[in-house]
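Quick entry between incubations.
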Amino acid sequence: QSVLTQPPSVSAAPGQKVTISCSGSSSNIGNNYVSWYQQLPGTAPKLLIYDNNKRPSGIPDRFSGSKSGTSATLGITGLQTGDEADYYCGTWDSSLSVSWVFGGGTKLTVL
Amino acid sequence: EVQLVESGGGLVQPGGSLRLSCAASGFTFSSYEMNWVRQAPGKGLEWVSYISSSGSTIYYADSVKGRFTISRDNAKNSLYLQMNSLRAEDTAVYYCAATTSFDYWGQGTLVTVSS
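Done. Structure below.
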């Protein structure tokens, strides 16, 4: 059971838009920046979004992030078949001891 | 180009030990916080440990506290994870990742704990 809750799967057609939610609490998302990661099959994770809504160099603006209260959202527009991957949210948590927490991951299927 | 290369994984018996290494290049290693993250087969990501740039601040996940030790050698641009009292549930691909936002990741090294 992950501290951050993500839907197990989402799907959409090529060219469409999809959003992936990440729900937490005041000890994590509510008081810390959120990052998002993409993990293509058989590869290491890659940073997509940091500090809630910033994109590293090289990440297309089709990917966006937002945060409100204790929840965060990853948005992907203009879906491509190459976007099929697992997506994870993550942030620091300071409930009992300092730790980093990941969401359980969301499998994106581009139909 | 930033590169993180993990090594040291393999097959070990329950109760055994293993030391993972992560060789860094392409950035000023001594300026960045580092982490270890693992992923059990078919499962999601699990953060394991964090170490500050100087090594003075260290955090561990509860699941490895008391068994694993993170360290770094800034002169050698290297990060380490000493894993003792290994259990079957420690079987995973172990990644090193740089910065507090996990900007850069290695390719991972597989640790299998089995008799």
